[in-house]
Amino acid sequence: MATQTKKRTVEYLVLGTLLLFLLSGIFTWQAVGVDMSNPHANFWRTVRQGIAGFTTVTSEGHKVLIQNGGENWREIRNGLLMRYAQWLPALALVVMGIFYVLVGKDKLEKPRSGIKIERYTLRERLLHWYTALLFVTMAITGLSILLGRMALIPILGHGAVSGYLEASKVLHNYSGPLLLVGICGEFLLWVRYNIPRKIDLEWFKNMGGVIGSGPRPHAEKINGGEKAWFWLVFLFGTAVGITGILLDFPIWGQTRFTMQVSHVIHATVAVLFVTVSFGHIYMGTLGAEGTFESMWTGSVDAVWAKQHQDLWYEEKLREKGEKPERVSSGSDRTYRGDT
Questions:
Q1: Number of domains into which the chain is organized
Q2: Which pLDDT tens digit goes with each residue over 167-202?
Q3: Residue 97: domain span
Q4: Does residue 42 contact residue 34 with C-beta atoms inside 8 Å?
């Protein structure tokens, strides 16, 4: 009898010990990841999961106290975007400088004739410079907003940069829709001249005679490089325009996630837009002699037209059935036609 009692006692002790170890394991497993120094840690972990609560505010996203997507967006903006936004445009400027030193300006192969051919009407030039002015404004203010803290504060100080960035933000937001209007206007006005053709591929082989050897390729009123820029303006302009509108007017029920993705797309495409625009600006000013005149005065010399856009030059002659003539009085005669 005593032996059975002792045996049961030992069994109970063994079972109790096993049960104690099991319970301690369960408690330990539940306590993993808990910050014992902060009794509210579990509460805030639950909050960061994005579980919606209750609020009388009806605005989008206000039911979520902490949205982790904001931290992810900040990491992308302050990390990847800012890293490449500061080096990509600078690298493009360096490459253009090296290209100019090695290749130089594409000069006219013959002396100017003094005969002027109208290339752009006043309406076209006004639209171009309207869009260009807004583009430069958006580029300066946009890069300032993106890189201002890192690039400007060390130079100008917090006070000056704070006021400048505040003004840049307002100017950027109001100029954006106006730029989109200009881009849409240019598309409607010039799309008929910018339909890609097989002949444009020949232009890219030696960049219209700027590099390499051999004869210059034939070109219409708009050559292959200009057509490429036209479609890049349309595509990049559409992307930054749509995302910019979404950021400017958060009144259509956009979620915070939509706004964050829109901002990343907007900033990324805008940096690429500005970078590629340096090539267009270069070719229109320093790159080729006489090119800037076409958009500033509206006319080009007949020598320039024959050298760079020979098919368009011949078309102008056929339209009038006569050749442009030099005016004996010394003043330049403008050969007008349907542009």
A1: 1
A2: 999 999 999 999 999 999 999 999 999 999 988 888
A3: 69-335
A4: yes
Residue 262 resides in a domain: yes
At residue 19's C-alpha, the angle toward residues 14 and 24, to 5°, is: 130
Please count the CA atoms within 13 angstroms of the CA of 2 that sit on its side-chain side: 0
Low-confidence ranges of the chain (pLDDT < 70): 1-39, 43, 46-51, 58-63, 65, 322-339
From residue 81, give the alpha-carbon distance in Å to each of 89, 91, 258, 259, 267. Answer: 13, 15, 18, 16, 8
Domain with 207 in it: what CATH number? 1.20.950.20
- What tokens appear for 117 in the block? 């051919």
Percentage of residues in the chain having pLDDT higher than 70 = 78
DSSP 122-187: HHHHHHHHHHHHHHHHHHHHHHHHHHHHHHTHHHH-HHHHHHHHHHHHHHHHHHHHHHHHHHHHHH
Q: Are 273 and 240 in contact (CB under 8 A)?
A: yes
Contact 248, 230 (CB under 8 A): no
**Do 302 and 104 meet the contact criterion of CB atoms below 8 Å apart?**
no
Ranges of beta strands (E only) in 193-261 are none
- Asked if residue 217 is part of any domain, the answer here is yes
Phi, psi of 335 (to 5 degrees): -85, 110
What distance lies between CA 315 and its chain's CA centroid? 37
Structure-token pair, residue 95: 């490459």
114: left (phi over 0), alpha (psi -120 to 50) or beta: left
Question: Both tokens of residue 248?
Answer: 């400017």
